[in-house]
Amino acid sequence: MSETRNALNRLSAGRARLMLEHPFIGALVMHLPLRVASGHWCETVATDARALYFNPQFIDTLGLAQTQFVLAHEAMHCALGHFARRSHRSVRRWDVACDHAVNLLLVGEGLTPPPGALLDPAYRGLSAEEIYPLIPEDTAERTLDVHVDGAGGSARFASAGGSGGSAPDAQSGAMPAVEPGGSWDDAGNEGRTNGGIASAPPLLSASQAEALAQAWQSRMVAAAQQVRRAGRLASTWQRLVDRLVQPELPWRVLLARYMMSAARDDYSYQRPSRREGDALLPRVASAEVDVCIALDTSGSIAAAELDAFVAEVDALKSQVRARVTLLACDESLDARSPWRFSAWEPVLLPDELHGGGGTSFIPVFEWIAHARYRPDLLVYFTDAEGDFPDAAPDFPVVWLVKGRGMVPWGERVQLN
């Protein structure tokens, strides 16, 4: 009992310190009531977006600063809606990706992680969805906490350490029992509890996950507004809230917008045939749009991603009557470039693309200038890690970027 009381005191002190030092995170943490967890299913800490479960023995190993980190870690999983965003993804890789995303955010705000927290700096600034494909399928990385959800169509428990194991109740096929007297409604509102030790909580249904995700988004927006009025909201959190409340459009939608805008549909006053009468009336005249596609073949873009991108361009091409000029380049232009496709021809990649060297975008623009070719739109598929020309060309350029590389000019579209 004294161990449990000490853990509760430490967690309470951690929450109070967060409210003073990191009020935005502290306000989110206060939405998670503390529950003592049974050690057979929770070795460290856990959350189901309705409460924070903790193993007193684990909390006893932490200092106050590390306790603050653990509290913030659970709250941010909830605020970011990780419990409702997994979809079809592998449980273990998704949990590892979520831990990297959350931990890097918190370390960036000056919080102190406990030993073993996942903190690969290569993933800094990436969302869990962007980190996920970079996690090996057989990863041995271990998560800090137990992730409990029923989203994505498969109810499960991921045990602490990311082992992908199940709680005993889940292994038997029975629905895990909530602590006696405890209950939550679909919106995640907590009912009464008896203050005892919590067994594994009930898994979230699809409707519960959706309702909880909306509730946490509202809580996050309210916390950001309150802290901003006090002048204490860090720019990192402001950008995060803005991105979640107003998410970026998928790259396919944005690419379609750019290609549609490049289409030259306009009114024509050209003299009609005499058989049409003497009046000169405006009418829509359509011409083919000329689109140049450049592919980064330096090795940073996988073949499957190139295939998906080209297939998307091919689908859009027929809608806007586009001629396509295809170029491939790593540090130099593929000697077989360009490949040209008329509006009625399918865009197909060559059987083999030369590449794998360094990355330079200059050869593509030099070839365009030397050929005296002026496309209506250039779309460059790349990770944006390479040498750029010093000046922008006199035609629109859209960079479809995998990763977090930045571009000096043109329109940048994030590959989600």
How would you sum up this structure, described in words?
The protein has 416 residues and is α/β, with parallel strands linked by helices. It folds into 2 domains: 2-245, no CATH class; 251-414, Rossmann fold. Helix content is 35%, strand content 14%. The chain has 12 helices and 13 strands. The chain has helices spanning 2-21, 23-29, 56-59, 64-79, 91-108, 128-131, 168-171, 206-229, 235-245, 251-262, 303-320, 362-370, and strands at 34-36, 45-47, 52-54, 146-149, 156-158, 264-268, 283-287, 289-296, 322-329, 339-341, 377-382, 397-401, 411-414. The strands form 3 sheets. Strands 10-9-8-11-12-13 form a 6-stranded mixed beta sheet, covered by helices on one side. A 5-stranded mixed beta sheet has the order 1-3-2-4-5. A two-stranded antiparallel ribbon has the order 6-7. The longest helix has 24 residues, at 206-229. Mean pLDDT is 79; it is low at 151-195.
